[in-house]
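Hi support team,

I'm filing this because I wasn't sure whether my run with flavin-adenine dinucleotide finished correctly. The job status page said complete, but I'd like someone to confirm that the output block is well-formed before I use it downstream. Pasting the exact inputs I used:
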Amino acid sequence: MTTDVIVLGAGGAGSAAAYYLARRGQRVLLLEQFAIDHPYGSSFGNSRIIRYMYDHATYVGMAKAAYPLWYALQDEAGERLLYETGGLDFGRRGAPTLEATLNAVKQFGIAVEQLTPAEGMRRYPQFRFDDDMTILYQRDYGLLNASACVKAHVRLAARHGAVVVENAPVIRIDVRDGGVEVVTPQGTHAAERLIVTAGAWTAPLLAPLGVNLPLQVERVQYVFLQAPNPDDYRPGRYPIFISHLYESYEHVPYSIPDYDGAGVKLAFHGGEAVASADEVNRAPDTDAVDKLRPFLRDVLPDLADAPARETHVCLYSMTPDHHFVIDQHPVHANILFASPCSGHGFKFTTLIGSMLADWSIDGKTEHDLSLFTHTRFAAHESVT
Ligand SMILES: Cc1cc2nc3c(=O)[nH]c(=O)nc-3n(C[C@H](O)[C@H](O)[C@H](O)COP(=O)(O)OP(=O)(O)OC[C@H]3O[C@@H](n4cnc5c(N)ncnc54)[C@H](O)[C@@H]3O)c2cc1C
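And here is everything the job wrote out:
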């Protein structure tokens, strides 16, 4: 066997897994159905939020492990991947998710500043905060240049010896004695082990192997607005934010400052369910920006009528509980799979890549992945 492990899918998680596997001396084949850094999955674009601010301690712990890995990758890649900006979480006083977030980060000694609405508006005059709001500031909020991260992982994986094949869609996975074979239109590839990191395409790839994952694909849009005074929306003058104003707006509005001239990014966390990743209307529409206007009028009035420079379509893979899936095939231990999504997985992809590499090579990882087991969806699984 000339290949130790095949990584199926070179998005956020797969590119990272290939990098850590190759760095540990494995003979890696990384297969991608499109070109590297294509815009059809979940990891494309100039920004994804990285943060400690989670209402679940497991993710705070994972963020503590992920930050240093991103900095190490940045050093090895010799390019800036992570931009620190500082960030806000705000909502009505006593909002359960704000309380839960404070409790979770406190367990890890993460410093959080509580601002009054007046203090929040003094620091960030772009915002309008009501008197009954809680404003939390956390300085380690940052953005990752997602496309650059994927390309860096792939480039360094190749530098460590990985073979990267683009435009090679895997159409079938066959389990063979002591190994696996994956079939593409260009040919069949064999290896001892397989890691499936196929994002929104994961469920239909694993179902023939008897693993049925309840992943709901969602079409999500995000917009870049042309701010009337762009300098007011640059890192340092404008924070990343996540609004916990659930009772007032359909979804969770969030925003990322304009660090590269693309405009200030705004979006809702969530989108419309679609039948499959191959049946997505890829043409952006005005739906996302139209839905954001009421929130902007209330909280960021200068942006209320700002024109949308660009709108992009992207995919979420949602689990019913919004936690990731990172697990091993129940029968074929040489097959691992991971879908770190539900709209919040990119920040962890380099960490999850390292976990998958260790698990694939050593048969185990030091990290507790019990939250991410696929058997939690027991009702959905039937092993033949
Ligand atoms: C609009 C939007 C905003 C987001 N914001 C954030 C954020 O701020 N912070 C954050 O942490 N997360 C965020 N996320 C979530 C994050 O982007 C995803 O969790 C992450 O990108 C998932 O990575 P992945 O590797 O699982 O999927 P992908 O990157 O989609 O990778 C899967 C890859 O597998 C390939 N593939 C699939 N099937 C096959 C096949 N048969 N053969 C070969 N290749 C195949 C695909 O082409 C793709 O390249 C956001 C997501 C969206 C859509």
